[in-house]
Amino acid sequence: MIERITDADVWTALQNEERPIFLYGMGLGAEKILAEFEQHNIKAEGIFASDEFVRGHSFKGYLVQKYSDICAQYDDFCVVLCFATRLDNVLDNIRKINSRHTVYAPDVPVAGDGLFTREFVAQHDDEFEYIYNNLADEESKRVYLDVIRYKVSGKIGYLLDTFAEKDEIYSNILRLGDNENIIDLGAYDGDTVQEFIMATGNKYRHITALEPDPKNYKKLVRNVGELPNISCINMGAWDKKDTLIFSAQAGRNSRLSGTGNTVEVTDIDSLNIPATFIKMDVEGSELKALKGAENTIVTHSPKLYVCAYHRNEDLFVLPKTVWSFCKDYKIYFRHSKYIPAWESNFYCVI
Question: Rounded to an integer, what distance in angstroms lies between the CA atom of residue 270 and that of residue 234?
């Protein structure tokens, strides 16, 4: 696999960059990237935001500037994207900026330690190659390779060429029927429940939606709790019943951690549900959730939708785990509209 990657690590490229480097965006993403800049001795010239959002404020000691003002001051510079988006108008603006200036979007893992580098790929080369060679179709292989290239290089062009429509994934790969028994792990505010309802034409047997964050859970119940044949459970997915510490951010990226509030978690096998479809978006706990659903998977062979972008190792550990339960699974890989490589998922069917 490493032989297919010709780009340098994004951090090496930025270290060698002779043009001024400007961060685009603020918040947690910018904090993480600035921390990596310090570790790699990379200098940020400044921070900018879209013109309409600039109000003369500062971030981490930098005066936040307008993009138009940066363009007026510098003939050329490179941009480091510090936020995530799936919005069409924002993506269009990023494309426009990238057509004039090189845009990097460094991959910083949502969970776990370390960076996704050429060295990381080389260390796990056999595992990446095994997954690549055994994916279900050529499109999966193309997207898998481009996502890896993106994660190493930070070059957004690799992602812009991979966007898949969710409707096509549901209709052409998952092919949900009108009698599905669905388990939604990491149901957030009910957004994916709504996806399932649309994909099944509002015909399903039952939906069991788990969401550990109390604020998100209230939104989930408010948005979909009155639907017929749905059970909302304020729990997280794990490999056994337990009480863990939960970092509650009241957003999609709330996750299990070492500090925060206690949360009840459960293995799926204990729920004793004859599932036909399981979705797992549990912010870095996907491997635990899979192990906690082993008997359900072996017994009922449900279709699986497993998010693969929270931890560096997800790209090979998660499909290997599914195949360890059942070798008959055909595993597809798709990346839905998002920068950075969030919404890179494995779709497993028999």
Answer: 15
